[in-house]
Structure to design on (580 residues):
């Protein structure tokens, strides 16, 4: 808002300066005054560009009036009646600015003031007929009115037609304004994201008309219980957003619970609060993490994703920034080729000062809960692709696949594919040798955006593995539709293999399923020779676990792979000698 006004000030100042140079030297006015007024307008414009959203609305109205006064001074001091008429056209700037940003009442006051100044100053000059100001005054009114109408039509695009609430576009705009106000006032806004549980079944079983009625009912109920300056929006589909300009996290949790109880349908909610300096998109993403955790925890509950990070999260931020994390690699071997290494899985490792025993799973959890997962995933992927080149050089006789785990929170980001492309370009690692591991539960609960991102990555040559396969409840029915190249069998199935009995029947079924679907299975958690032999006898082709090798730093694994490559070359040489 203020920057737009600053741009109009700057444009008027530049044009005014140009006219002050071109107008005649002799005349009834003073070219120097015109130049000073123009220079002042340029300075105002620069100041507004710097201040931006910190300018208060009332100050903004005053600044538009000041602009009108500067135009009037320039018109009066113009040394030429033609130049005066040219300068009078600048009143349109004031009218457009007021009509676009102010209410009809305040905009009308500004336009009337501009028209009075226009007519009055041109009449007061004495070298123009009384009717000379009619055209610039009429154009000012007409343009100002049209801009006002168009601005209000555009604002209607911020409204959801079904519920009458703000839509996502309108909410994002209001969020931007509220955070700018909070920066000035020191307030701490809170944000709640709601998602109606099992809403899809309402649409599927009762029809979309019934679904629309549910959304309208929810919006009406919540609008009735909310008051004051609380901003409620339908954020998309069955998701609602509530911005609370100044409320503590605990009070927001209480309000979210009250709102969930107000409606008959189950509802999950994620709550967070704003920290100075954070962007609106970051605030929404943190609330979305809370909502995701609420749904993962069983739905119909409220989860706080606090903006006050715990000490471990603060330490993790510094570790990612300073790149003091490490990545270890565990080999994936071929059971049909004597245990030859065909790939590695990248696993993040971190020795925390405050919690030295923190596990990889805990690191990922802390990252997801504190909005750090994007940076953590990017760090691991980049380091893995870079180290992969060194590992591949140690094993030149076969292409090495590189498995990297992906967070479900990252998969739903629209720019996720672009991030992968960027890392592959920067490191030079081939897309065809990258495998992204996604947990089965993520593919079941996440939005179609995740599936679309995985499909696009597969089209680029990247392969997808379903991690922890068998621990979810819907993958068996969806394997044909999911973008999948590998299944990683959860280690809990492998621990059921004991020397005391036959192989568990479920392992045989999964082996047959993988063959029929053409999806290789990587058996995780192999810890002894007997388990490896049973898996091989059942037809499993790939395995991973401590029996073969524990996760190792890149240097240690390079040495191991170099020895494996040398042994493979010696074996091949012996084969040639025997056949010759």
């Amino acid at each position: 808002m203020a920057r737009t006004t600053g741009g109009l000030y700057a444009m008027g100042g530049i044009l005014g300066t140009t006219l002050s140079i071109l107008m005649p030297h002799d005349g009834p006015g003073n070219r120097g005054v015109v130049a000073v007024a123009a220079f002042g307008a340029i300075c105002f414009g620069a100041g507004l560009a710097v201040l931006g959203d910190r300018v208060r609305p009332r100050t903004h109205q005053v600044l538009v009036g000041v602009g009108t006064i500067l135009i009037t001074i320039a018109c009066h001091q113009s040394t030429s009646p033609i130049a005066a008429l040219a300068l009078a056209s600048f009143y349109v700037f004031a009218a457009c600015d007021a009509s676009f940003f102010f209410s009809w009442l305040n905009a009308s006051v500004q336009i009337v003031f501009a028209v009075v100044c226009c007519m009055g100053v041109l009449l007061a000059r004495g070298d123009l007929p009384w009717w000379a100001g009619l055209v610039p005054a009429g154009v000012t009114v007409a343009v100002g009115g049209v801009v006002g109408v168009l601005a209000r039509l555009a604002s209607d695009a911020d409204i959801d037609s079904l519920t009458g609430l703000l839509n996502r576009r309108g909410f994002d705009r209001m969020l931007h304004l509220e955070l700018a106000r909070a920066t000035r006032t020191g307030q701490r806004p809170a944000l709640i994201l709601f998602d109606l549980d099992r809403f899809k079944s309402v649409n599927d079983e009762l029809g979309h008309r019934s679904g629309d009625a549910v959304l309208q009912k929810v919006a009406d109920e919540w609008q009735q219980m909310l008051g004051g300056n609380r901003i409620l929006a339908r954020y998309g589909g069955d998701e609602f957003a509530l911005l609370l300009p100044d409320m503590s996290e605990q009070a927001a949790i209480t309000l979210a619970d009250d709102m969930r109880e107000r409606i008959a349908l189950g509802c999950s909610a994620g709550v967070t609060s704003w920290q100075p300096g954070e962007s609106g998109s970051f605030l929404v993403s943190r609330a979305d993490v809370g909502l995701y955790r609420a749904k993962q925890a069983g739905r119909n509950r409220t989860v706080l994703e606090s903006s006050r990070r715990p000490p471990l999260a603060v330490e993790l931020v510094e570790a990612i920034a300073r790149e003091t994390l490490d990545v270890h690699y565990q080999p994936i071997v071929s059971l049909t080729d004597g245990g030859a290494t065909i790939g590695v899985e990248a696993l993040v490792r971190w020795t925390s000062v405050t919690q030295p025993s923190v596990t990889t799973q805990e690191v990922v959890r802390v990252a997801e809960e504190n909005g750090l997962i994007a940076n953590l995933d990017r760090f691991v992927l980049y380091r893995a692709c870079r180290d992969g080149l060194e590992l591949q050089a140690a094993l030149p006789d076969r292409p090495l696949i590189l498995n990297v785990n992906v967070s479900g929170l990252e998969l739903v980001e629209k720019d996720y594919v672009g991030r992968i492309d960027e890392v592959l370009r920067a490191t030079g690692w081939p897309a065809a040798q990258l495998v992204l591991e996604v947990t089965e539960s993520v593919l079941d609960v996440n939005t179609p955006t995740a599936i679309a991102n995985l499909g696009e990555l597969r089209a680029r040559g990247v392969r997808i593995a379903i991690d922890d396969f068998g621990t979810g409840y819907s993958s068996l029915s969806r394997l044909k539709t999911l973008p999948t190249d590998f299944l990683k069998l959860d280690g809990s199935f492998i621990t059921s293999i004991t020397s005391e009995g036959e192989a568990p029947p479920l392992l045989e079924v999964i082996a047959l399923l993988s063959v029929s679907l053409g999806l290789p299975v990587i058996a995780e958690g192999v810890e002894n020779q007997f388990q490896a032999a049973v898996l091989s006898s059942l037809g499993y082709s790939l395995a991973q676990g401590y029996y073969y090798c524990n996760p190792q730093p890149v240097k240690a694994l390079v040495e191991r792979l170099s020895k494996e490559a040398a042994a493979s070359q010696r074996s091949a040489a012996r084969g040639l000698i025997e056949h010759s």
Q: What stands out?
A: The mean pLDDT is 85. The chain has three domains: 2-156, 168-304, 320-570. Residues 2-156 form one domain.
